Amino acid sequence: MSASPENRDFVRLDPFTVRTDRSEVEAFARATGWRGAVETVPFTFPFRWLTGPIPRAAINRLLGSETAILPVHEGQTFERIRDWQMDRDYRLTLDLRRENAPDRLTLRASIATREGDPCGTLETVLRLVSRQDLQA
After folding, report:
1. Within 10 Å of residue 97's Cβ, how many Cβ atoms?
2. pLDDT greater than 90 at residue 79
3. How many domains does the chain have?
4. Which of 70, 95, 100 is nearest to 8 (CA)?
5. Is 41 a member of any domain?
6. Is 37 helix (H, G, I), strand (E, B) or coil?
7. The whole model's pTM is what?
8. Is residue 3 part of a domain?
């Protein structure tokens, strides 16, 4: 982990394997309101990969023992270079940056095939809200 004056913390994770497992894709599609047969991987499915144990561990490392912080979804962007294929492995590279003006956590991911061909990017911004401020 490295730090710079304008950022509290920065973490770059080595590429790790993620998968478009059909059962997870179908559950994600249903949770987002899809009613028909799930024949393709939804455009936003890579968001699901940010909830896995590797990204969660990095987020916890950046937030430390700050249980008084509530991460609130602020924004998200996706760029898909090629369609995701069902039941395939991909390589996800993830950068996490904690900023302090305002307090937020930004996750930027690059997604590639196992062979290294680019598939897309995503960015998620979480505003870090003090639970104490919410009680005022």
Report:
1. 19
2. yes
3. 1
4. 100
5. yes
6. coil
7. 0.83
8. no
